[in-house]
Amino acid sequence: MSSLPANRANTLKAAFRVCDVAPLVSSRDIERYYVNLSKVRKTEAINTIKKRLDFLEPAEFCSLLFTGHRGCGKSTELRKIQQEWESQYKVIYIEADAELDILDVEYTDLYLVIIKKVADVLYTSELNFDAELLTNFESWFKEITQETEQTVERSVSIGAEAEAGIKIPFLSKLLGKIQAQIKGADKQRKTVRQNLQKDIGRLQADINLLLGDAFVKLKSKYPEFEKGFLIIFDNLDRVLPNVAKHLFFDYAFQLQSLHCTIIYTAPISIVYSENNLTNSFGTPNIVPMVNIYEFEQDKIDLDHNDDGLTAITSLIEQRVEVDAVFESRQLLVDLAKASGGHIRQLMQIASQAFLIAATRNREKVTADDITYTIKQEQFNFERSIPAGYYSALAAVCINKDVSKDEIARLMLFSLWVFEYNGINRWNYVNPVVRQIHAFQEALKSATSNP
Q1: Structure letter (DSSP) for residue 249
Q2: In 3-state terms, what secondary structure has residue 134?
Q3: How far is CA 17 from the centre of its chain?
Q4: pLDDT tens-digit profile of 367-390?
Q5: Cα 284 from Cα 224, distance rounded (Å)
Q6: What global pTM score does this model have?
Q7: 157: burial class by Cβ within 10 Å (0-12, 13-18, 19+)?
Q8: d(CA 120, CA 155)
């Protein structure tokens, strides 16, 4: 590699700490550790998102779907997009799992999160919504939720306002209480949602009026935000396949109806559906695995691609001095092969290998440490894969494709199977899963009895 960062980790403890599975968030970490993998992913998805934002004129909006396997690096790319566009958009970055019950999400929940975040931005910028619009919205909202100023005020502690450093506006308190109810008990959640959906047209129209007013107010004080708000809704790829299907197909229109630009993350499982996603959101922007293989349709055990392996090992080399913490550079290549081109899996196995080596009082990772760590990851998969699924996994390994059914969506969501695309689109079984004895037996049976 040409220019590696100075002061890379040179002990097992330091290497364990820097090979964190969490996405890069801060500007400092992105600048230090980010590696552009677009060439070896063989996809234009990330640049397409950026160009689509560039093509938008002020006061034009669009909704974009950004998908891929959990842990493939979407969040890091979204943080980089946030950095690049903060000069023209007021970017609001939302982590869905922090705001919603990720196991049960409705589009109305997303509406409430978005308008609350916009309201918070406006007030912290010492701006105010149009008084009449705000009064109408609050009055309607109080009516359908049967909330009053008194019930809302009681739900917000004085300490919360002191922590915020400002007096929290009533709208934010009201929306915050409703969000808490939606994340609460099932009965309470159902009641709130039913009330909101009694007049969903009014809810949508009022939110759009407030978004339009917020855009005008924001631009008047900060002319640089000429394109308005950019909402990045991250971690929606963590919703279960059945929830995602309901959200992104049944309510695709509603998700695209708000008057601001939104990037929604989504699980890759929704791309594999009998419902054509293109009909709802246009061509999906998919971040596939780093392609570490030489694709051959009729070959079961694929050879590895040197460019792909070099690219994904560079993620570790950016962070650690390889010769200081590995007994040989080949061990890093072995890690790359075990990752299947999946970034989080690479970091997870690497960090565990550092921990295991340190636990064994070694100064460097050995081949035995790598083998042990990969085995532990294998056992985790063994505990979760039902016995009846191994024949389907063997079929993926042979055919390089998944069936378009619930089993396939579960395999993709659970990271048992990866997608690679570019000129070709194909699937392959996670290399750690391929080590499982039950899978090997299923593959042997499938190839001897095609």
Answers
A1: I
A2: helix
A3: 22
A4: 999 999 999 999 999 999 999 999
A5: 30
A6: 0.91
A7: exposed
A8: 18
